[in-house]
Amino acid sequence: MSEFSLAGWRLERRIEQSRFSRPIGLAVALVGAILVCSVLFVSAGANPLTAFATLAKGSFGSLRVTGETLVKATPLIFTGLAACVAFRARLWNIGAEGQVFAGAMFAFWMQHNLGGYPALVQIPIVVAGGIAGGALYAGLAAVLKTRFSVDEVISTVMLNYIIVYVLSMLLLRGPWSEAGGFFEQSARIDRGAVLPIVLAGTRLHAGFLLAIVAAVLVYFLLKRTPLGYEIKAAGSNLRALDVQGTNTRRLILVVFLVSGALAGLAGVTEVYGVQYRLKAGAIAGYGYSGIIVAILGQLHPAGVVVAAILFGALLNGAILMQITTGVPSALIYAVQAILLLFFLAGWAACNFRLRRIADA
Amino acid sequence: MLDTLFQASILVSIAAATVRIATPLLLAALGELVAERGGVYNMGLEGMMLMGAFTGYLAAYESGSLWVGVAAAGFTGALMAFVFAVMVITLKVEQIVTGLAVNLLGAGLSTYWLRAAFAGDGQTPTIPFFANAPIPYLSELPYVGPVLFDQKLITYLAFLMVPAVWFFLYRTRYGLILRCAGDNPKALDVKGIAVAPVQYAAVVFGGLMAGLGGAFLSVGSAARFVPEMTNGRGWLAIIIVIAGLWRPWSILVAALLFSFLDALQLQIQGIGIAIPYQLLLMMPYVAAIVALMVRRSRASAPAMLGVPYLRE
């Protein structure tokens, strides 16, 4: 049922969208999201205006915090691109979260066994390790889907839970734990494997540039390559592609490998660019946020970069907000979900219009 | 050491733990079953359970009454399910994406409000939790008594919901209408029965049950709320519905199998067999993937599951 009627008004589906409906829908969604966030601020006993102001100041107020915003955006660009590639093909890879872990772990494993080589050797190995780890873990979900018909939403979510325990096993009194350390983390990584800082006075590291390069590559992949064409075709009708003669099993595997590789890089840049240690707390949460980033970015690489920087700003600004107004920074995760819900509803609402029943 | 695992008293305690641990899984899975029978994939189950656990805890803490907590949890689950229903049934937004949004909302809001409510304290205060309510005479039966008849009231409720949901689905007119909404909504429409209200009711009921399942975790056993305390149980409930082939009794069996694994690992940890505890904790998730690899047929799934109904 697509029609509701209430007090002489009826909600009905539009045949075609008007030129204005989409921007208006988005604007209404944004206002709605801001209003709900204000209510949340008040629920924590803070003045919404002050809270929004400190949020902005904490994210773009100076060179240092702007750099920090981009640092926070870096893993989100990778996970956003990961979701972007998979969702374009309507393959629901919810596993970026676990693939971030797998990338960081595989890179750490390769670099850890290597020893103190110069950066020119170590950094490419770490990057390759991240790509391989993320791709392998995502490939597992692809094989489960194509060979065992296990739904990818469920397998990737389960794999997300499983790898957290695997990492914990390796780090807590395991082969990777810091000698004599008390916390569940590795020792500090070798200086030669650290991603270099690219903007003096900030913590902005080479991983950000890598993320931008990845976004450009994904853009060309989707726009200019046969694989990109197949991905988009799979998104509109996988069965038709199958009938047409494309090996869809192979396509599903390739999409998962690419998506997982991108997610794996998020783990690498976080561990080797920011934390300099392998620990679960440092890499958790980026996979799920990346899905929101991808959808808000309209599954377009440029949109992903913009949305990731916005979310990086939220994460970063929340730190100052917590210090000055006492609003817990955990709010940001709720805000991300609220933004997503409002935008989804806003876009969908563009397909409807209200009419007086008497006019119809 | 292994033979200690097979003593009668230990087997009884594993069986009793299995029944206890099955409670939240069973509540959420039966709710999901009703929603999916109506044709809607509620992927937001995890978030609804988590918010149920949180509001249940907070309401019980503020009011001093555990039953107020349970009611608040059920209401919160239903409210979130209503939002979900507006998005997927009326606005026809992608069900998977909306479900994820609801999960993230649950995780974010519960952590945020927990920190806002108990700012400064490192530890959140504990509340009294539901004591066992042994059933007179029955609970004194050897073996069976402690396993089945010395549990919490919510556990009895969860297990009684199995025949109740079965009866509703297969023996009532409304159950028939609901199954029709999932299998052939057009037929329903032709008969002059609107599909959307049926699906709304099914989804909201599913959210209510998920909220109650969440309440069992916080108010029912842990006596406090911990961020992310559902730890994938909402997802396991979805898997239990698939592994249980969308049938109430098979779902009961699947829920018991999963909770048996959990009960077993608790016992193994308890007697100190030298296995890394992380390996034990990941067992249900591995088992879930294996279960889906074995149960490959989706022939018994509602025919139009996950497909929004568009009226021509």
In summary, what is this structure?
The complex is a heterodimer of chains A (360) and B (312). Chain A has 360 residues and is mostly helical. Chain A is built from 14 helices and 3 strands.
Structure characterization notes:
The complex is a heterodimer of chains A (360) and B (312). Chain A has a domain at 77-297. The mean pLDDT of chain A is 89. By secondary structure, chain A is mainly alpha-helical. The two termini of chain A are 18 Å apart. In chain A, a hairpin with a 2-residue loop joins strand 1 (4-6) and strand 2 (9-13). In chain A, strands 1-2-3 form a three-stranded antiparallel sheet, with no helix packed on it. Chain A has 14 helices and three strands. Helices cover 70% and strands 4% of the residues of chain A. Chain B is mainly alpha-helical and 312 residues long. In chain B, 70% of the residues lie in helices and 0% in strands. Chain B has a single domain (2-294), classed as ABC transporter involved in vitamin B12 uptake, BtuC. Chain B is globular, with a radius of gyration of 20 Å. Chain B contains 13 helices and no strands. Chain B has helices at residues 8-37, 45-63, 66-90, 95-117, 144-148, 153-171, 173-183, 185-190, 195-222, 233-243, 248-271, 277-281, 283-294. Chains A and B meet through helix 6, helix 12 and helix 14 of A and helix 3, helix 4, helix 10, helix 12 and helix 13 of B.
